[in-house]
Design goal:
This protein is mainly alpha-helical. Helix content is 60%, strand content 0%.
Amino acid sequence: LNEDELRELDDMELRLEYDTLYTFRQLAKIYIEKDQMFFQSYQQEQQKQQQETQASSGGGWFSSLNKVWSFLPSSTQMSDISLELTPDVWKQIYEDLAEKEQTTVSVNTPKDYIRNRITFTLETGSIEIHDSD
């Protein structure tokens, strides 16, 4: 990230509410996890294809040339390979986020973001909360 982007991120940290920041950080974290799994599966598939190619090529002059060819750098850099954010991927990310929120008991919210903390158990009846503002 360049300096302008870093400054913009710092500005968003001040402007946006804690819940919004937390949600988007969770979305980013889930995407990174999915992207890492995608990259690992891609690497495994590439290794499998390379092994199949080496196994299928005979033991002649061309097989030694193939071994040299497989060690040459490819046109696609490994760092350029990432999970594309398709609608299906977004759906999976939101489903994972909903599942994580259901399993999470509480969020460690910084104290300076909490104005009031209320804990109660309602056996019967109803509750109304009015803001004096």
